[in-house]
């Protein structure tokens, strides 16, 4: 009802909506421990998801870095940003669209997040910020922002660079404050200058809403903020998309007011409990390795054990017959040989559904055991076991995975064709 009643408004066209957006920004900033007094107003804005939020945060970092370099009489034409290879594609978009070099920390088998030590080693005088992920898209794991902050403080003291941190909390921003309150990842750390979070993930709102908040007003250059008055009053605006709908902002405000801290805490605790139920069920099959961590976004990422003659892509495809959409994907650079299945636990994913998914997965595994192996067709069971060298194994396995992807894609194209 709230969404439908406000669907014809843009958020800039109505002071009522702008007021509600500012209320949301203040609640979220305080949730992230922004250093605000009782009467201070937080600096932030609602966006069309975390992609726009990251673009805006990145622009603020770039402009602050440029202004600092200009004041020092130094060159300012080669900015870079340090991230892990596990970042979401919006970081690559920011780097390409706004001409910033993206310096990625490669992953390794068993360690699928950014290594703080390696990240700090890659920081130089042209680094506008280091981006840490609170809830990796691949495994849900929280990166160690506290360790990153401590290492970067030491490097800043030694070099005088004052390189800051942005936390991409698209997935974890509405999780960590409620079930991991002791975890230091937010504005409690002095180098964290901005944080983004998605309202349409664990903020419990429909798609199309994100938020970015800054530590203080000084962290967002005033020259990036525009002021308009043709809608009846002076309104500051810092967005990439002016004509944003108001319905998701109203919905976010409603959820924050209706649920409150205890309500969100109950929802997130329930998600975590159902995640543990699913994880335990998958482990009991004795056919999978769990890749995800218990502390993080409530999801289960898992891969087949050993040298299975079937792939995670086959499991993903066959689970669709039972109504499940469980994505299978390969890891990024330097861990491409690892293939993973992932199940994200949302507020409507119950214990019953977790148990049903495990049961359906067992049916798929039993059926696959009776089918010819995609790998054995390619190289033969004996050859597979006798291949020499890890690199050769990876190359062969990647050939099979690519072939299976093509098979599935071609099969989808033929669906419904007589």
From TrEMBL:
Name of the protein this chain belongs to: Glutamate decarboxylase
Keyword Endoplasmic reticulum (UniProt): no
Superkingdom to which the source organism belongs: Eukaryota
Family, similarity comment: Belongs to the group II decarboxylase family.
Keyword Kinase: no
The entry's keywords: Calmodulin-binding, Decarboxylase, Lyase, Pyridoxal phosphate
Cofactors that this protein relies on: pyridoxal 5'-phosphate
EC number: 4.1.1.15
Catalytic activities: L-glutamate + H(+) = 4-aminobutanoate + CO2
Source lineage: Eukaryota, Viridiplantae, Streptophyta, Embryophyta, Tracheophyta
InterPro entries, per database record: Glutamate_decarboxylase, PyrdxlP-dep_de-COase, PyrdxlP-dep_Trfase, PyrdxlP-dep_Trfase_major
Class of this enzyme: lyase
